[in-house]
Design a protein that fits this description.
Elements: H1 13-16, E1 31-33, E2 39-44, H2 48-55, E3 70-74, H3 76-81, E4 83-84, H4 91-100, H5 102-105, E5 135-140, E6 143-148, E7 159-164, E8 167-174, E9 177-178, H6 181-202, H7 206-217
Antiparallel strand pairs: 1-2, 3-5, 4-7, 5-8, 6-7, 8-9
């Protein structure tokens, strides 16, 4: 087995037991093994979302979670609409990801959608294909499954999403450290048009509901 790269944060036991890629990063449990026996961190292994939910497995390390142990690793827009495309993890595993994952710690890192392996399936709903620059660990006591029907005209993909419960605690990170209030606000401001556009298309009360959801996030922001 390859060794871990130097400079990584202290690893929870479950993460330390994961296989390691050529760069020395632990390979999350959800990452699929491709036909050529390589790994692509963008590709989720089919069926693992269902397994994680039914067996209460950590999305990152794949080991058992407690029934009340729900930490979602999300971006600021998920804090607004309270929806995640991925299941929860152990808090310690989510914390490690926020401090070590190159995509989460490097704001300039772009989400690569080209050359995806054949058969790759995009997340359910409408994905926001950007690097938000900040990561939010959202710890809650419960969540609900949302079954999403496909709507090609709206770019909505079928599948399962997660309606996350009220937060028990939140932790904001940027560049592998606690994020500042200014960094979080900048990420929210740049991402809100991605939610505002579909709300405007829907019409009715949707824009007002979105505005209320956005206002509710203010109480979760870092103090400084």
């Amino acid at each position: 087995m390859r060794g871990h790269r130097a400079g990584l944060p202290r690893m929870p036991t479950g993460i330390r037991r994961l296989p390691v890629d050529g760069r020395g990063y632990p390979i999350p449990w959800f990452v699929a093994m491709l036909p050529d026996e390589t790994r692509d961190f963008r590709v989720i292994e089919p069926g693992k979302i269902g397994r994680a939910v039914k067996a209460r497995l950590c999305w990152i390390c794949g080991r058992k979670r407690r029934r009340d142990q729900f930490t979602f690793t999300i971006g600021p827009m998920c804090a607004v609409n309270r929806v995640s495309s991925e299941p929860p993890s152990h808090h310690a595993c989510a914390q490690f990801a926020a401090l070590a994952c190159p995509f989460l710690t490097l704001p300039q890192a772009r989400r690569r959608d080209h050359n995806l392996p054949e058969g790759s399936v995009a997340p359910a709903g409408v994905g926001l294909m950007r690097n938000p620059g900040v990561t939010l660990l959202w710890q809650c006591a419960d969540f609900e499954l949302l079954r999403v029907e496909a709507h090609e005209a709206e770019g909505i993909r079928a599948g399962v999403l997660f309606r996350i419960g009220d937060p028990l605690s939140v932790e904001w990170y940027a560049e592998g450290r606690p994020a500042t209030r200014a960094e979080v606000l900048a990420s929210i401001d740049s991402g809100m048009p991605l939610l505002a556009e579909p709300a405007e298309r829907e019409g009715g009360h949707a824009p007002y509901v979105l505005a209320a959801q956005r206002a509710a996030v203010d109480r979760l922001l870092p103090a400084t």
